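Data availability (excerpt). The following record was deposited with the supplementary files.
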Amino acid sequence: MVMANGLKKRSCFIGKLPVNVMTVRSEFDAYCLRQTVTAGARFQIISTIRSVTARENGAIVNTDEGDFRCHFLIGADGANSRIRRLSNQFSDITLGFALETCLPVSDADAIDMAFDFGRVKNGYGWVFPKDDHVNIGLYTNAAEVRISRQELDAYARQKCGRPPSASVVGHHIGLGGPWYRPKSRRVFLIGDAAGMVDPLLGEGIYFAIKSGQIAAAAIQGAVFDPGEAVIAFRSGLKSLQRDLSFCHLAAHLFYRKLDHGYNALTFPITRYTLMRGYAMGLPLSVLTYVWWTLPFRKVPKYHGV
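Predicted structure:
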C-alpha cells in the first residue's frame, strides 16, 4: 500500500510474485554475526573507544580494554560513528531520523505493508507486518524535523487501532554518502557511518552490505599497500555513490512536490518497473534507467489497483 497522507490518495500494489521478505533486524544482525565468526573473526564487546590513531604501518584503537592494533580499521558503527569522529573524517555527513516500535498482533497477514508518504515532512510512515507483530514507524530525511512520541502514538492508533505499548526506539540515519571521500589510508567508513543510506526511503542495509564488501575487497587486494587499498576503495565506491546521488535527487524532487512525486510513483509503467526491480533488489538509478528505456509496447500487464 502506498499513500500520500497530505493528498488523501492511496494506491495498492498487488503482484503475483513476492515483492519482498520481512525479517526482524535483531535476528538478521545475529545471523550476520554468526557467519562472520564462523569465517574466523573474533567478536569482542568494547565499552569505550578513547582514540583512533592511523600510522604508516597500521591503526591503533585505544579502549578501556587496552590497545588494539590492526592493518586496517573499518568504521561500521552507525550514523553517530565514534570511529568517524575520532579519525576526523567526513564532517559533512547529515542526519535523518526514524522513530519506531513493534505492536503484537494475532494475525499480521491481515495487515497490509504500507508506505504513507507525507505523514511527516520530507518523510513517511510505514507499516511492516512480521509474523506475530507489526513494525510501525515514522522517518524523515530532514535534520531539522523533530518526530515526537505523540506523533508515533497517533499514527499507530490510526493504523492498528491502539498506541504502542512496547518500547519506542529512535535512531539517526546517516546521509550524504555521495560526498564521502576516504582520506585515511588505514581507516575506512562504511554504511551509515559514511552516510550510505537512500534518503528517499531511509533504506541502508543494501548500501551497508555493498560498501562493506567494497572495503573488504580493497583490503584483500592490497593488504600490504595502504595506498593501493584506499585507491581501490575510492574506486569501488564510485558506482554506489552514483546510485546514492540519484537517490538524493529523487528524494529532493519527490518530497518537494509530493503530488507530482506520488503521481509518478503510481503511474502504471513506473509502478510495474519499481515493483519488479524492488523485488530483484535493484538500486533506484538502475530502475529509472530501465523505466526510461523500456518500450511501452513491451510492458506486461501488471495486476494492481
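Summary of structural features: The mean pLDDT is 85.
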